[in-house]
Design a protein that fits this description.
With 168 residues, this protein is an alpha+beta fold. It has eight helices and six strands; from the N terminus they run H-E-H-E-H-E-H-E-E-H-E-H-H-H. Strand 3 (58-60), helix 4 and strand 4 form a beta-alpha-beta unit. The longest helix has 12 residues, at 127-138.
Length: 168
């Protein structure tokens, strides 16, 4: 879903923007920047306090009986939450699923507005990097491709992050 931000609050209310902290998961999602309407890959750096705020306000994107007393309680929580958490399999250089999961954070309403107006620190076009890594993977130069990957470290998510106990 494409979302264009305006300056009025209602523009943020009907939009869900997903933050994908994993470079390779993003490459899986956008097909290395080759999928239609996803040809540009941006790295958006956001404020840690903002990211943690969103995690503390989040609800799981799916019903989990270990986290919610019943489906109705989850639906009410989801409807009132400005953020949602989803845990998807991490990906390798060939975009195959790995045994561990990466966080995806969906933002809407207040969280989406804060993301756009307050939390964003920097935006970089990493499309050339994505294409270079993909070219090296295609030519069998996986070590060279891996050396180009952005550094990623485990993120110490705040206590109460939805689903954290099932993936950590």
């Amino acid at each position: 879903m494409t979302c264009r931000y305006g300056t009025q609050k209602q523009d943020y209310e009907h939009c869900l923007t997903w933050i994908k902290p994993s470079f390779l998961w993003m490459m899986y999602r956008c097909g290395w920047g080759e999928k239609a309407d996803q040809e540009t890959v941006l790295a958006v750096e956001i404020d840690r306090d903002g990211f943690d705020w969103a995690l503390r306000q989040a609800c799981l994107s799916h019903y989990d009986p270990d986290e919610h007393p019943d489906r109705g309680a989850w639906q009410r929580e989801l409807k009132g939450s400005p953020a949602r958490v989803q845990w998807d399999p991490e990906r390798d250089l060939r975009l195959r699923p790995l045994s561990y999961r990466s966080l995806q954070l969906g933002l809407s309403g207040e969280a989406s507005r804060r993301y756009a107006d307050e939390w964003t620190v920097a935006i970089r076009d990493v499309t050339p990097l994505a294409r270079e890594i993909r070219a090296r993977v295609r030519s069998g130069e996986t070590a060279a491709a891996a050396a180009l990957l952005p550094e990623e470290r485990p993120y110490p998510a705040p206590e109460g992050t939805p689903g954290l106990g099932r993936v950590s």
